[in-house]
């Protein structure tokens, strides 16, 4: 069924705010049409992502140290056929983790029980599990499942280590079909594909923090970043 043009849908919305001017309403309705187009583009991209052909097979039997002992990569799926993995910038060279990653994971912590209804979920870092658990307790995280990649094999194979040994965050989705594990999708937007004047980021942005700040007149800015402590 053909979609109604976004500009027409925007005129159907009857929300009005106390004291708004005609100029404000005209500009807001025009913006609303653009927001509807953006919503449609987000859905179109998600549909295109879901239609990806079979990705590369995971052929190594990676092992991690979890909060309750050693686990194999396949174990991270649990009862699900899909697995979401985030590689956390908290390598052994770091005394403290990346504040940006920490902000992101803090926003996800409460969502883990909901995510776990639909997919496996794992946060992987190269620091030892005791170090990861200590920071989890300090931060007050309740639900994030942390795993140490002590061998660094997985981190190395899946692009989480820079040439200088520093950390690279990765957001990846894997599938398990008929016993075969494959990479389904991973974020690939980085510095080389960033637009001028913008920090490298994917689309949609994973951080709820930026979604909120992007709705303010000041926006996210170009020099402010979250901190571990305030």
Structural write-up:
The protein has 230 residues and is an alpha/beta fold. It is 32% helix and 17% strand. The protein has 7 helices and 7 strands, in the order H-H-E-E-E-H-H-E-H-E-H-E-E-H. The chain has helices at 6-12, 22-50, 99-109, 112-115, 129-139, 153-157, 208-213, and strands at residues 63-66, 69-72, 82-87, 120-125, 146-148, 170-177, 180-186. Strands 2-1-5-4-3-6-7 form a 7-stranded mixed beta sheet, covered by helices on one side. A hairpin with a 2-residue loop joins strand 1 and strand 2 (69-72).
Task: Give average pLDDT, whole number.
Answer: 95
Helix fraction by DSSP (H/I, runs of at least 4): 25-40%
- Order of strands, widest sheet: 2-1-5-4-3-6-7
Specify the biggest β-sheet: 7 strands, mixed
Tell me the series of helices and strands, N- to C-terminal. HHEEEHHEHEHEEH
Q: How many angstroms separate the termini? A: 51 Å
What share of the residues does DSSP label as strand, in percent?
A: 15-25%
**pLDDT < 50 runs, ≥5 residues:** none
Output the structural class.
alpha/beta
